[in-house]
Amino acid sequence: MDLQKAIRELYDEKERIDGVIASLEQHLRTNGPGAPKRKRGRKSMGPLERQDVSARMRNYWAARRIDRSE
Q: Is 68 within 8 Å of 60 (Cβ atoms)?
């Protein structure tokens, strides 16, 4: 049995295992239980949606002005 060959094979296997461990640790950092949660952003409105909201608010405030003047 060639000891040099056995030692070389063990070092190769150690490098492979170290790579797998590093990969798993990276996966835990990005997807694990302690990973930072992504914040949800506000939904943006398109032009038509913005016009609908604008018309709805105009009607709302007009109705409030009418109620207050009575």
A: no
Q: Which residue has the tokens 């609908």?
A: 52
Q: Which residues contact 53 (CB under 8 A, 6 or more apart)?
A: 45
Closest Cα partner for 25 from 64, 17, 43? Answer: 17
Q: Which distant-in-sequence residues (6+ apart) come within 8 Å of 35 by Cβ? A: 28, 29
What Rg, from alpha-carbon coordinates, does the chain have? 32
Instruction: Return the structure tokens found at 42.
Output: 């506000």
Q: pTM of the predicted model, to two decimals? A: 0.45
Contact 45, 53 (CB under 8 A): yes
66 vs 22, higher pLDDT: 22
Paired tokens of 18: 């170290």
